[in-house]
């Protein structure tokens, strides 16, 4: 089996690379390293069956030979990143998705789009099931990512309807684990980095907003299973257990033995107040649900951060 992973040097993508290689697949990574890191995949450089192509998926790409599966994960994925690279984010969601879909059509490959829970925006339905159409501000600062992914979903399902391309759409909810960048702005690496240094922990708003957090090993298993099913409507992947941001901060402080205080900051525009997946579809179709609890997963990430400091 030959797999192409766009964005394969990123956080989730690099863990998928490891999993596919360990399962005996050949893997091609395409990444321009705008937010990905070569160090995430460097341990695979000398392995047979692995190839890294430093290219932008927004440009047409020629790959020799067959490809069985394309996983399109390329995109800035944290608010810090997509606010820094708004045009690049939208180009990747549009041109990048188009180019990867055209490659899948040329190669006769299955195509998996890594979409996001951000398509639900600041939701008026809780928890969020795949039938919910979302509440997104199309001209807000987050729209470059939210609307970009919504466009990518529309384009992907159109390739299924017009060309009968075997497409899969997954909506990834908050995921965490080793290889997250300390400064990428996402809540878990930010809290851990601050707590380990005993610096004030940054709480946006009151901290009563909620999130759910899925450990990377569980997410990789869900993506692998999703890539194997013949199902074309979106599938939520995430951990349905919900925490307030203040609860998360307290758990991180305890696990880090930290003396950090809290620093309250204004809530960013259009920041979701609640976020929790309904994973009934994933449970039924994929026989999948997360197994790793938050404290266990956080302990793993904290140990990894300590080694990097």
TrEMBL record:
It comes from the Bacteria. The keyword Phosphoprotein does not apply. Keywords: Decarboxylase, Glycoprotein, Golgi apparatus, Lyase, Membrane, NAD, Signal-anchor, Transmembrane, Transmembrane helix. The keyword Membrane applies. GO terms for cellular component: cytoplasm. InterPro entries: Epimerase_deHydtase, NAD(P)-bd_dom_sf, UXS-like. Its main location: Golgi. Residues 3-237 form the NAD-dependent epimerase/dehydratase domain. GO terms for molecular function: NAD+ binding; UDP-glucuronate decarboxylase activity. It is found in: Golgi apparatus membrane; Golgi apparatus, Golgi stack membrane. Pfam families: Epimerase. This is NAD-dependent epimerase/dehydratase domain-containing protein. Gene3D superfamilies: NAD(P)-binding Rossmann-like Domain (3.40.50.720).
């Amino acid at each position: 089996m030959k797999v192409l992973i766009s964005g394969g040097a990123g956080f989730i993508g690099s863990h998928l690379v490891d999993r596919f290689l360990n399962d005996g697949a050949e893997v091609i990574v395409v990444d321009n390293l705008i937010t990905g890191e070569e160090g995430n995949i460097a341990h695979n450089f000398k392995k047979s069956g692995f190839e890294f192509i430093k290219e932008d998926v927004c440009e047409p790409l020629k790959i020799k030979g067959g490809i069985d599966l394309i996983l399109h994960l390329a995109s800035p994925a944290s608010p810090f990143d997509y606010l820094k690279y708004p045009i690049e984010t939208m180009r990747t969601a549009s041109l990048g998705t188009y180019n990867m879909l055209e490659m899948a059509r040329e190669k006769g490959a299955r195509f998996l789009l890594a979409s996001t829970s951000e398509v639900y925006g600041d939701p008026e339905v809780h928890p969020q099931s795949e039938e919910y159409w979302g509440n997104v501000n199309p001209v807000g600062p987050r729209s470059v990512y939210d609307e970009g992914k919504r466009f990518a979903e529309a384009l992907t399902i159109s390739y299924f309807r017009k060309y009968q391309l075997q497409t899969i759409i997954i909506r990834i909810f908050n995921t965490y684990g080793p290889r997250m960048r300390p400064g990428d702005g996402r809540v878990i690496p930010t809290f851990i980095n601050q707590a380990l240094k005993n610096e004030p922990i940054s709480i946006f708003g009151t901290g009563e907003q909620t999130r759910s957090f899925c450990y990377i090993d569980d997410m990789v298993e869900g993506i692998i299973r999703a890539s194997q099913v013949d199902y074309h409507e979106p599938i939520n992947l995430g951990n349905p257990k919900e925490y307030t941001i203040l609860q998360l901060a307290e758990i991180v402080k305890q696990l880090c033995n930290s003396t950090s205080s809290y620093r309250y900051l204004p809530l960013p525009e259009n920041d979701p107040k609640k976020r929790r997946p309904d994973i009934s579809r994933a449970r039924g179709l994929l026989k999948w649900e997360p197994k790793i609890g938050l404290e266990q997963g956080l302990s793993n990430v904290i140990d990894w951060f300590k080694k990097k400091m």
